[in-house]
Design goal:
This protein has ten helices and four strands. With 287 residues, it is an alpha+beta fold. The chain is elongated. The C terminus is likely disordered.
Length: 287
């Protein structure tokens, strides 16, 4: 194994550990003790935890196994293996820290908000290295593979809505669903803030000698569409294909990793974008 590969792997593992610790703060201190289901697989695990008292890390890992297998078959090995590594670390850290952190059982709204923020920040650190925490993200990408016309954001939102609704029925209170919604919103906002401040959408341009290969992997692994632009090098006057791709900020780390894995010499430019209109984004301009 090359020295550079080992260093990158250690960086990945280090970021997984940091992100998992912050994630565990949100789960073990705030959401789980207050029966708040913060969407995704974590929300399902929270409900099962109150039923079985099995540790959250163990439940999260077990629930993700069939999703990881599904991702391995449908999405591919590269993305799924990095996710599996993260899941192992996340589950171990969540279990180890359970009982170590103090538990907050005060105001449920505060628990929802602070728990969601901690979970979102933790996931953001993990996403920065191009990995994911699995769960509904894998399920969303699988659905996207067979229904590419449906925006990934809407798929994930629909899945979270089902889980939040289930939490309301399971705990038999409307408040449970409302607190879960607060937590889901806090997770998304905190995660986006870690990845790219408060700019929700990014537009990236890539100049690469392997543009078509880069583009194919981006479309296969992120579900984002790409546009080819015809360019010309100013120095050698050589014609080049330029890739343009707009994406939610949370996907940029994965996008960058794909590009550099295919072509380490690729030139990447990225900038914030507002009022992106079209499939996968808003359909009308803000008034």
């Amino acid at each position: 194994m090359k020295k550079e590969t080992i260093i990158e792997f250690l960086k990945d593992v280090g970021m997984d550990i940091i992100g998992s610790l912050i994630f565990a703060v949100g789960v073990n201190i705030f959401t789980t003790p207050n029966d708040i289901a913060p969407g995704g697989v974590t929300g399902v695990a929270t409900m099962l935890h109150s039923m079985t008292n099995i540790q959250m890390g163990t439940l999260t890992f077990l629930l993700n196994i069939p999703l990881v297998i599904l991702g391995l078959v449908v999405i591919g090995k590269r993305f799924t293996l990095s996710t599996f590594r993260t899941l192992i670390i996340l589950s171990l850290v969540t279990n180890i820290t359970e009982g170590i952190f103090p538990v907050y059982t005060g105001n449920a709204f505060m628990a929802s908000a602070f728990g969601g923020v901690a979970i979102g920040i933790g996931m953001g650190f993990i996403f920065l290295r191009g990995s994911t925490t699995g769960g509904t993200d894998i399920l969303g990408r699988v659905i996207l593979k067979y229904h590419p016309h449906i925006p990934l954001g809407k798929i994930l939102l629909a899945i979270d809505f089902v889980i939040v609704t289930a939490a309301g029925f399971y705990y038999n209170t409307l408040e449970a669903a409302l607190y879960a919604l607060v937590s889901v919103y806090a997770v998304e906002r905190a995660m986006d803030s870690v990845l790219y401040g408060f700019n929700e959408t990014r537009i990236a341009y890539v100049v690469s000698e392997k543009a078509t290969e880069v583009a194919q992997r981006v479309m296969d692994e992120t579900g984002r569409g790409i546009t080819y632009l015809n360019g010309e090098g100013g120095y050698q006057r050589a014609e080049k294909l330029v890739i343009m791709c707009a994406m939610p900020s949370r996907q940029f780390a994965h996008f960058k990793r794909i590009v550099l894995e295919v072509d380490h010499a690729a030139f990447i430019m990225v900038a914030p974008a507002s009022n992106v209109i079209g499939e996968g984004f808003k359909q009308t301009f803000d008034e």
